[in-house]
Amino acid sequence: MAPARSRSLSATAALLVLCTTTACSPGAQDDGVDVLVSFYPLQYVAEQVGGEHVNVTNLTPAAADPHSIELSPVRVREMGEADLVVYLSGMQPATDEAVAASRPERLLDTAEAAGLEAGPNGAGAETSDAHGALDPHFWQDPVRLSDVARDVAAELSDADPDHAADYAANAEALVTELRALDEDYREALAQCAGATLVVSHEAFGYLAERYDLVQVGISGIDPEAEPSPARLRAVRSVARADDVQTVFFEVITSPKVTKILAEDLGIDSAKLDPIEGQSDPDSDYLDMMRENLAALEDGLVCEG
Ligand SMILES: [Zn+2]
């Protein structure tokens, strides 16, 4: 018995040594900052800025429409226990309610850093919903996402001051990538100023505002709101008047209405991802933004 016992003791000692010098699984999970985010773009930012120091959990399942998720009491409780909750007020009624109910100790509402506006570039203006409400879809503008990245770094530094320098450096690396993305959009869409962008729901107001496009949404800011026959007639007549060549559909919400509209008009339809979720785990925010840019270059009517 004695030799076996001493072997197991020395194995334990060896494990302890390992754990103090390198990451120790599964114990390492408990060491990082537990960050709960409400949907994908905020997950992307938290992971990029937090790097190895954070464990990020997304409240919205990968294939779900974040606007209309529901949260179980267990999830709401988890929110109260997270080291940091990063969300966007006004985007998801379920997380707004959960934040109010669970009162997280450290909470970052990204609405302020994102500089949300009421219906930029016509969002919500012609549909029944969202009169006077703020448009949440800020991540379609890389400049606004940069401001949010810096805000997340500041909040993480407060929560975990030992790694503040890393958070600041990670945020600046992300901002550099977002600046390059913004320049690519600016350059590629320079000839498209004033072009009409017909989309299935008004997720592209800030993109339209940044790159001088005119967004026309078949549905409003909330994709669940069914477009009325009058709304469909109005979109059809705008598309004809502006000689639109492509209408853009998205994957998570039903693309059917948009595809029928394209058939009616005898024009193309193409995918434009609102990036509210991550439909392909191998394709991150930057990949999806670049795919969207290629779709816009192909589909918009531009000069030159
Ligand atoms: Zn949306």
Structure notes:
The chain has helices at 2-21, 40-50, 73-81, 93-102, 111-114, 142-159, 164-188, 205-210, 229-241, 256-265, 285-299; strands spanning 33-37, 54-58, 84-87, 107-109, 196-201, 214-219, 246-249, 268-271. The chain starts with a helix and ends in a 5-residue tail after the last helix. The chain is 46% helix and 12% strand. The model is unreliable at 1-29 and 123-131 (pLDDT under 50). It has a four-stranded parallel beta sheet. It has a four-stranded parallel beta sheet with strand order 6-5-7-8, sandwiched between helices. It is built from eleven helices and eight strands. Helix 2 crosses helix 7 (164-188) and helix 6 runs antiparallel to helix 7. The relative contact order is 0.12. The chain has two domains: 33-110 and 138-184, Rossmann fold (3-Layer(aba) Sandwich), CATH 3.40.50.1980; 189-299, 3-Layer(aba) Sandwich (Rossmann fold), CATH 3.40.50. It is of the alpha/beta class. Bound molecules: zinc ion.
Annotate the secondary structure layout:
Layout: H1 2-21, E1 33-37, H2 40-50, E2 54-58, H3 73-81, E3 84-87, H4 93-102, E4 107-109, H5 111-114, H6 142-159, H7 164-188, E5 196-201, H8 205-210, E6 214-219, H9 229-241, E7 246-249, H10 256-265, E8 268-271, H11 285-299
Parallel strand pairs: 1-2, 1-3, 3-4, 5-6, 5-7, 7-8
Helix pairs in contact: 2-6, 2-7, 3-4, 6-7, 7-11
Bound molecules: zinc ion (ZN).
Zinc ion binds near residues 67, 201, 203, 223 and 276.
